[in-house]
Specification:
Layout (H helix, E strand, L loop, with lengths): L1 H81 L1
Length: about 80
Amino acid sequence: MENENISEDRFKGEMTRIMGVVIQKLDGFEKRFDDLEKKVDKNSQKLDLLVGQFTDVTNTVIFNDKRLTKVEIDVVELQSNVH
């Protein structure tokens, strides 16, 4: 009977130790997950900023393309008037 108590006490002690290790690992994973979540949020904000900047660049290119087309038309008209 005493051997059973010692074995049960050892088992409980070992299980308590193992559960402590598991809890520590879970806490470590939770911290890593929180850090990753923060990085994703930061990258998402940066991506939103880049999308806005890209939209601005696209609009500028479209505007300048229209201006260039108009200048090309004007040059063709001027050349036809010269000949």
